């Protein structure tokens, strides 16, 4: 203990690193011994930032939103989904002017997510396929996330197609979209995504063009009466996906 | 044992690529040598859980990888750099590495620091916010190494990591390898015999889908004689072992 104490001004100057070296040393020597002065060191004093550190750059905080943004927004499907949405919007605009037959919307709308899913994974379209496959998220999990992102974009487009074409009930347009996508994933476990999309998309095209002889038959595909059939197909495909999930790993 | 492979067989169609290969690796830096087409990349892909064996047993990090849960657990502790890899066009270098930190299910709180640390270790921190496509081939390769080490893997698989690196970068990389090998099992596949001689504690030599030699670089060097082809002792050892294996 000692009866000498550091003046407030000197303490502040020391904390802000403004004190000359010899004076700073004696303050430090005193602080080592004197608890009273230590407790008086101003904590609000901001030490000057070192000048030679490089700028930190765009470091992102690891939030949940950031995780979703990277895991879903990064895949190859992200751009394709956007492009197809634009393409369909153009198509819809044309349809309003009656320059494109309505059945074309029925042909394209529900198949969009199938195409989006097909390009979202596999070594032909994903430049990082080999690397992603070796991670904990690899396999079916990342495939499902990407499929979900495709559906988020293409389902509203399908419903819009239903509204514009006037075929069937717009809300029911969701169901063939989901069923065809699930079928594609189920088949892809066997054949790979490209072949699966070709088979499922081709099958849908046959179904739609086969109904061309009467507009009512086409509309049948997307009315309430077919709802149980689409649900059954989706459920069956989901079962196959779950059962065969090892094939995606 | 971090890696225990027994009687591993892999076929592509009718071609047998790996033919009853045995391999046991523990902590440290291991070199994997062999001529083109010997099965090095296939072995790497099996260990990276990307390719599936047609026969034999593979245990990684003490796990037989019997189910999905075990597979995920192993993959969290895995680092893998394939011979070739691409990137998404809009990614910056930092996003590229961050993407893999998320994919490997690292704890969120650790990710920002781990990403920058990995970039710093490969000397790319000053390019962190540049787009991947603006990097040179050697820099892209280093970004690939950064994503492989971002999760501090216990098993690190590097397939031809020094391809495209200039001599100075190769020296830096070997120093990094020795650092990583202190507490991880690092397997480096390469066709550059000198990389192995300098950076690896042990060497395995694969030919025709089988393991034909395993030992220290010194043991490989001493296998060669004056009559064997090669510019250095270890190269002469390499050709001698291959010749003996094929005889």
Automatic annotation (TrEMBL), chain A:
The answer on whether this UniProt entry bears the keyword Transcription regulation reads: yes
Asked if Transmembrane helix is a keyword of the record, the answer is yes
- Stretches that traverse the bilayer: 70-94, 100-122, 143-165, 195-213, 219-243
UniProt superkingdom: Bacteria
Question: Signal peptide position in this chain?
Answer: none
Which keywords belong to this entry?
A: Membrane, Transcription, Transcription regulation, Transmembrane, Transmembrane helix
- Protein name, entry field: Zinc-finger
Q: Which organism is it from?
A: Actinoplanes campanulatus
From TrEMBL, chain B:
Domain ABC transporter: residue ranges: 3-233
Keyword Protein transport recorded? no
**Alphabetized SUPFAM superfamilies for the sequence:** P-loop containing nucleoside triphosphate hydrolases (SSF52540)
Superkingdom of this entry's organism?
Bacteria
Q: Which keywords has UniProt assigned to this entry?
A: ATP-binding, Nucleotide-binding, Transport
Signal peptide from the UniProt entry:
none
Q: Name one GO molecular function term.
A: ATP hydrolysis activity
Matching Pfam families: ABC_tran
Q: Which family does it belong to?
A: Belongs to the ABC transporter superfamily.
Instruction: Specify the protein name.
Output: ABC-2 type transport system ATP-binding protein
Q: What is the lineage of its organism?
A: Bacteria, Bacillati, Actinomycetota, Actinomycetes, Micromonosporales
């Amino acid at each position: 203990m000692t009866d000498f104490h550091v003046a407030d001004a000197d303490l502040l100057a020391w904390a802000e690193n403004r004190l000359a070296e010899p004076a700073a040393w004696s303050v430090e020597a005193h602080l080592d011994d004197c608890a009273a002065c230590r407790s008086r060191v101003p904590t609000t004093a901001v030490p000057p930032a070192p000048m030679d550190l490089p700028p930190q750059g765009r470091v992102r905080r690891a939030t949940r939103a950031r995780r979703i943004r990277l895991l879903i927004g990064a895949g190859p499907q992200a751009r394709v989904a956007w492009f197809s949405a634009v393409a369909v919007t153009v198509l819809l605009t044309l349809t309003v002017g009656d320059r494109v037959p309505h059945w074309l919307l029925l042909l394209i709308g529900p198949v969009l997510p199938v195409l989006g899913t097909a390009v979202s994974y596999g070594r032909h379209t994903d430049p990082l396929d080999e690397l992603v496959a070796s991670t904990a998220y690899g396999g079916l999990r990342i495939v499902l996330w990407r499929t979900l992102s495709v559906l988020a974009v293409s389902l509203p487009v399908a419903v819009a197609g239903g509204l514009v074409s006037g075929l069937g009930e717009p809300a029911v347009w969701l169901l063939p979209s989901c069923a065809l996508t699930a079928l594609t994933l189920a088949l892809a476990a066997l054949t790979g995504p490209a072949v699966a999309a070709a088979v499922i998309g081709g099958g849908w095209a046959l179904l739609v063009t086969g109904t061309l002889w009467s507009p009512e038959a086409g509309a049948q595909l997307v009315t309430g009466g077919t709802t149980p059939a689409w649900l059954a197909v989706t459920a069956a495909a989901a079962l196959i996906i779950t059962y065969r999930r090892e094939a995606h790993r | 044992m971090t890696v225990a492979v027994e009687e591993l067989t892999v076929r592509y169609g009718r071609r047998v690529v790996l033919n009853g290969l045995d391999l046991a690796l523990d902590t440290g830096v291991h070199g994997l040598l062999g001529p083109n087409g010997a099965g090095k990349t296939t072995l790497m892909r099996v260990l990276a859980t990307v390719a599936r064996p047609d026969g034999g047993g593979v245990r990684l990090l003490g796990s037989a990888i019997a189910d999905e849960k075990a597979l995920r657990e192993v993959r969290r502790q895995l680092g893998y750099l394939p011979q070739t890899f691409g990137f998404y066009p809009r990614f910056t270098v930092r996003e590229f590495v961050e993407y893999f930190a998320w994919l490997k299910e690292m704890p969120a709180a650790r990710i920002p620091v781990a990403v920058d640390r990995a970039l710093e270790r490969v000397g790319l921190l000053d390019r962190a916010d540049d787009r991947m496509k603006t990097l040179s081939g050697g820099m892209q390769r280093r970004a690939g190494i950064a994503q492989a080490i971002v999760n501090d893997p216990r098993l690190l698989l590097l397939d031809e990591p020094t391809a495209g690196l200039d001599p100075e970068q190769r020296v830096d990389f070997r120093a990094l390898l020795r650092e990583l090998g202190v507490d991880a099992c690092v397997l480096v596949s390469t066709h550059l015999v000198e990389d192995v001689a300098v950076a690896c504690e042990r060497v395995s030599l694969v030919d025709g889908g089988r393991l034909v030699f395993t030992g220290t670089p010194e043991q490989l060097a001493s296998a060669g004689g004056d009559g064997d082809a090669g510019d250095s002792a270890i190269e002469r050892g390499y050709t001698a072992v291959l010749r003996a294996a094929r005889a």
